[in-house]
Amino acid sequence: MEFGYYRVSVDPIRGKIPMGEDREIIESSLRCGRDEALKLRERYGAVSAAEIGDKLGIAVEHKDEQSALDFVYVGLFESPNKITIYNNNIEKAASLLEALDITELNTDLKDIVLAHEMFHFIEEHDPNLYSNTRTIDLWSVGKLYTHRSKLICTGEIAAMSFAKALLGLSFDPNILDYIFLAAFDFNKADQLFKKMINGRS
After folding, report:
1. In what order do the strands lie in the sheet with 82-86?
2. Residue ranges of the domains in the chain?
């Protein structure tokens, strides 16, 4: 749940979320991602994430790397059906885990990235998902009109929950945000980890 609170705390419209609704947002987002993963497992059985992506008609492209000042890109979904995996960025994180002798995360990191982005593909094509229907009131003109907006955090929380359920992970894949950044900048990663643990931006 701590990671969920962090996701909520960095949402662009976090200040508009009514007090006390963050827990419901997190729990519903987790359930949304988990349910979608279970649907795919029931439909396709024990096949790889790559095979599921192929069956869904997702075009997966592998590139070397892409990085930005405050965020390391490891995967990217582009509408309508393209997912780009940045191999070198992921491999740097895998090398860091190996150098630190961390064996608990014994899953191919590329599979986790693919699964995460796969949820965003599903999200793009299913307007009825919780991550698409949960909105926050931003402003209103009396009773005539209320302007509402979707949250970004719902999709991110759901995507991580989806990856965990689809791959049967024994750990929370949110920790990979720290690991991927640590492969490039330990100081920034340390700051991020503290924020994630404290559940705030």
Report:
1. 59-63, 82-86, 75-78
2. 2-198
